[in-house]
Design brief:
42% helix; 175 residues; single chain; mainly alpha
Length: 175
């Protein structure tokens, strides 16, 4: 294993590069008199004329602070999503990558809940219908945009219990 040397070679001179370029394109032929000097002078004059000095001052920092920049990025991506220039998932991916809050979205959520309640009914189907009505009434009273989709196939179980003596009255016309 070789160790790197502390001394580094200086880059080749322009004259050296031009001489090797001539030899590569015209092997064995001497360069015309004055060609090397003339070409070197012309290239150096061109470089001097078009060369700009490196900046001596560091670039100025924009007037806006980092929180303002972060806010501008977030709002720009939000506006791009609103105008359909970028997909909301792509915008959120970018926001996540730069550790900014994700854009809020509307979600439609389907929950499957097991609700156990006691109702009074005369048969299994009536028990389910009464329970569904009770749940629907409770959710309608809540300030929630909810749509209840009852699916008869999802009716799990209804176990009959004892006689409800408080409701055990004859429902007919001649009470």
């Amino acid at each position: 294993m070789t160790e790197p040397t502390a001394t580094s070679q200086a880059p080749p001179t322009l004259e050296f590069v031009l001489r090797h370029a001539w030899d590569a394109f015209h092997p064995g032929q001497p360069a015309p008199l004055g060609w090397l000097t003339h070409t070197t002078t012309q290239i150096q004059a061109y470089v001097d004329e078009h060369h700009t000095d490196p900046q001596t001052q560091p670039p100025t920092v924009p007037a806006e602070s980092l929180p303002q920049l972060r806010s501008r990025v977030w709002h720009a991506l939000r506006d791009a999503v609103i105008s359909h220039d970028i997909d909301v998932d792509a915008a959120n991916h970018i926001l996540d990558a730069v550790d900014l809050p994700l854009l809020p979205r509307r979600w439609q959520v389907r929950l499957t809940l097991t609700v156990v309640t006691e109702v009074t009914a005369t048969c299994r189907e009536d028990a389910f219908d009464t329970a569904e009505t009770a749940v629907e009434t409770a959710l309608t009273g809540a300030e929630l945009e909810a749509r209840i989709e009852w699916d008869g196939r999802e009716r799990d179980n209804a176990d009959p219990g004892e006689l409800d003596t408080t409701a055990a009255e004859y429902p007919g016309p001649d009470q």
